[in-house]
Design a protein that fits this description.
The chain has helices spanning 15-21, 40-44, 59-67, 77-89, 91-106, 110-122; strands at 24-27, 48-51, 71-73. The protein is mainly α and 127 residues long. The mean pLDDT is 84.
């Protein structure tokens, strides 16, 4: 909404627009079996990112981004609510996380891990 709040997005090809409008993002499919969605796009667009504990699909990227201070793991919906509240109440902290993510995403160490993971998945060797 124009006055702020929470947006839910689940559309292919349009998430980049929503990420550009957001200060903080929760990357879905990470509270349930499924391995989580890709955190790299919102990080590259400067968002503070949270994910649940199920991040198998992007484990290497999540590790790098967490270490860089760009991504926080939240264990449940209550921790997610706390993360979102904190980011909305502390725009400088959200901006710092977003900047840390942009720096980490530019590093060469992130790309090979993601590419290798996706190639193994496509080959049916890992998932």
């Amino acid at each position: 909404p124009p006055a702020g709040g929470i947006w839910l997005g689940d559309t292919l090809g349009e998430m980049g627009l929503l990420y550009r409008l957001a200060r903080a993002v929760f990357v879905g499919r990470s509270f349930m079996v499924g391995g989580g969605q890709n955190p790299i796009e919102p990080v590259r667009l400067g968002c503070a990112v949270a994910m649940g504990p199920r991040t198998e699909n992007f484990a290497d990227a999540v590790e790098v981004l967490t270490h860089a201070g760009a991504l926080r793991e939240v264990a449940n919906e209550q921790e997610l609510a706390g993360f979102i509240t904190r980011m909305l109440d502390n725009p400088h902290e959200a901006a710092a996380m977003g900047e840390a993510g942009q720096v980490a995403a530019k590093r060469a160490e992130l790309l090979p891990a993601v590419v290798a993971s996706r190639l193994l998945t496509l080959a049916g060797i890992a998932h």
